[in-house]
Amino acid sequence: MSKTQNNSQTSIYRGRFAPSPTGPLHFGSLIAAVASYCQARAMKGEWLLRIEDIDPPREVAGASDEIIRTLEQFGFEWDAEISYQSQRSEYYLDALETLKGLGLLYPCACSRKEISKINSLGIYPGTCRTGLANGREARSWRLLTESVDVAFRDAIQGPQQFSMENEIGDFVLKRADGLFAYQLAVGIDDALQGITQVVRGSDLLDSTPRQLYLQQILGQQMLGHPHPDYAHHPVVTDAQGEKLSKQKLAPALPLQQVVEQLYRALSFLGQQPPRTLLEADRDSLWQWSIENWSLTKIPRQMAISIEEIDKMTAIVE
Ligand SMILES: [Zn+2]
């Protein structure tokens, strides 16, 4: 919660893992946890755990505790008290007020259906930018992206450039159901918690310009932080090419196979762990992982199928 450290030369590396309690951790989430953890430890930095519980309709009772227990069993150690987004509303409200004050946030009456009728990709056409039409009521609040371009260098995927207005559109920060949008909470938290590098899956690559833009605007006003750097690793896909996700009911991580699952995650991340590690205990495996970790070995791909990993590691016949 503290507005600690500037990311100056003297400050240390700070990474994070930020699961949503929408179900148990699966192999796809393990990849993100391992990548962010090894990178933080290899940089002799800190690693924070943040539970992104701001979407109650999608949450599963008990999932937070189950996630935490699973991380403990896998040997992850976090460096500060776990933070919960559900307890950080004041920061998000503050940000919304600041953006309103800057004239960058406006009410929108459009439903998803109405938007997709105008733009098949669902990119917001700017209908309510100049005010709500007569008789229409505000549903959500959107951030103005007019003429905004965002460029950044991803540590794994390379240079990225987005024309916000054309490729993303004015995006929602407060949803029609009254909840804070994911983009708002994550963008604010990464900056406020002084995260120096976000390591996460490539499915979030197009969220990054949104969060960077927010951090840029709010940086001057309230955050007092530069933005983090970003590294997006490939995500795991199933045989049909779909991302493993809690929504698709990806199986929970088997707790009796900690070493095997960590070994698979490291293989997926291109670290080429020696097969002898499969016989090692959990702590020796972690020690090897951190000592030998290299972000540059992670494949510069957006996705890798689970079958390829199984071939790579040959744990499963
Ligand atoms: Zn609208």
List keywords for this structure.
317 residues, alpha/beta, Rossmann fold, 3-stranded parallel sheet, 3-stranded antiparallel sheet, 16% strand, binds zinc ion
Distance from first to last alpha carbon: 47 Å
Tell me the number of strands.
Answer: 12
Q: Provide the CATH architecture.
A: 3-Layer(aba) Sandwich
Proportion of residues in extended strands: 15-25%
Structural domain count: 1
Q: Which descriptor suits the 3D outline?
A: globular
Element order: H for helix, E for strand? EHEHEHEHEEEHEHEHEEHHEH
Mean pLDDT: 91
The main sheet comes to: 3 strands, parallel
Q: What ligand molecules are bound, each kind once?
A: zinc ion
Which CATH first-tier class would you pick? Alpha Beta
Name the strands of the widest sheet in spatial order: 1-2-3
Q: What percent of the residues sit in helical stretches (DSSP H or I)?
A: 25-40%
CATH superfamily assignment? HUPs
Backbone CA Rg: 20 Å
The CATH topology annotation reads as: Rossmann fold
What class, by secondary structure content? alpha/beta
Q: Please give the count of helices.
A: 10
- Segments where pLDDT lies below 50 for 5+ residues? 1-9
